[in-house]
Design goal:
alpha/beta, Aspartate Aminotransferase, domain 2, three-stranded antiparallel beta sheet, globular, binds pyridoxal-5'-phosphate
Length: 370
């Protein structure tokens, strides 16, 4: 059998470069709590991403939970069902009510034109997701938030390094969160971050990720422990040096896929938005069974026969899981576009180390369906 092709594979720093950093950490005997490498990575990421204030976290879910807590969000939060479950879970973990709004067909992002109808007197925030790293319509979302007095927290787990018109997409809204999970464009094994726009808010976030401690004896809120340790911060510094190269390799793969599949009837790609520097985090295709000839699930299975493992991100929708399906806004009639995308989408293998031969194997199966 041929070599297995997975949907993703982690970007790893050189072990030879990592070992001296580990020796240094062993000598310092300072393993966590805002150590040398932690401070270094916060600075380096702020520079690289073009943001002013960033706080590291131990994963990408806790910054979502902490963002809602930091802004004292209450009542209802408007969000999208077309995401990874952590988005809605973070709302649940704050004892808040998620309200699902349908998405745009072209991007998979929350449809701003559907937001106003979902606002009630209890709505206090909007939590959109830059799905696949495609920027949301942040201008329109901010207009609505300003009119109704709502906070905006972007789940930017897919949007590492994404710019629109030369500006980091992470500067939109009140806060943005990142995930540095092993499967993402940039990883610290597990890890994440919360981006905010002023020093006082960063200070508060840093209390909340350390049990709520302000100094030695004062606890300002029931914070959680979500600090990143020195070992992963050092690893993160090394990976940051090669992330541009990784994104360039992803771009080349995306171009191969697009060129080879653009004339296949029944296959649609994401829309290219003008002025966006993309990170090529995923390569989703949307299958229209009528024109393509076989269903998305049939193609998914066909690829597996060839040892190729695509992923159906995002299927099933968050709104169909037991915790949320009883919500009024989870009614499929409220979310027709999200359901359509969830039924059509297949993410093809996409990672920096994917070689051309493997890309051609994937293309061959998708084109020939055999
Ligand atoms: C990966 C991801 C998260 C969660 O990040 P973890 O680091 O795995 O906790 C949240 N939201 C989205 C959209 C993601 O893709």
């Amino acid at each position: 059998m041929s070599k297995i092709i997975t949907v993703t594979s982690p970007l790893l720093p050189s072990l030879d470069d990592f070992i001296p950093m580990l020796k240094d950490i062993w000598e310092r005997k300072w393993l966590t709590n805002n150590g040398h490498y932690h401070q270094g990575l916060e600075k380096a990421l702020a520079d690289y991403l073009g943001v002013q204030y960033i706080s590291l976290f131990t994963n990408g879910t806790l910054p979502l939970i902490t963002a809602l807590q930091a802004m004292k969000i209450t009542g209802e939060v408007i969000t999208t069902p077309y995401s990874f479950v952590a988005t809605t879970h973070s709302i649940w973990w704050n004892g808040l009510k998620p309200v699902f709004v349908d998405v745009e067909e072209e991007t998979g992002n929350i449809n701003p034109e559907k937001i106003e109808a979902a606002i009630t007197p209890h709505t206090t925030a909007i939590m959109p997701v830059h799905v696949y790293g495609t920027p949301c319509n942040v201008k329109r979302i901010q207009e609505i938030a300003d009119i109704y007095g709502l906070k905006v927290i972007y789940d930017a787990a897919h949007a590492f390094g994404v710019n629109k018109d030369g500006e980091s997409i992470l500067n939109a809204g009140d806060m943005s969160t990142l995930s540095f999970h092993a499967t993402k464009v940039y990883n610290t094994v597990e890890g994440g971050a919360l981006v905010c726009h002023d020093a006082a808010t960063k200070k508060r976030i840093d209390f909340l990720k350390n049990f709520g401690f302000n100094g030695e004896t004062t606890v300002v809120a029931p914070g959680i422990n979500s600090k990143m340790d020195e070992i992963r911060a050092a690893y993160g510094l090394l990976n940051l040096k090669q992330v541009d190269d990784a994104i360039a390799k992803r771009k080349a793969i995306a171009e191969l896929y697009r060129e080879a599949l653009k004339d296949v009837p029944g296959i649609r790609f994401l829309k290219d938005i003008e002025g966006v520097r993309h990170n090529y985090a995923y390569f989703p295709i949307f299958i229209d069974e009528k024109d393509y000839g076989i269903s998305r699930d049939a193609l998914y299975a066909k690829l597996q026969e060839h040892d190729i493992y695509g992923r159906r991100y995002f299927y099933p929708l968050i709104s169909t899981f037991s915790a949320y399906k009883g919500l009024e806004s989870a009614d499929p009639k409220n979310l027709p576009v999200a359901h359509k995308l969830a039924d059509q989408v297949l993410c093809l293998p996409m990672f920096a180390g994917l070689d051309r031969k493997c890309v051609e194997r994937v293309i061959d199966v998708v084109r020939n369906k055999r």
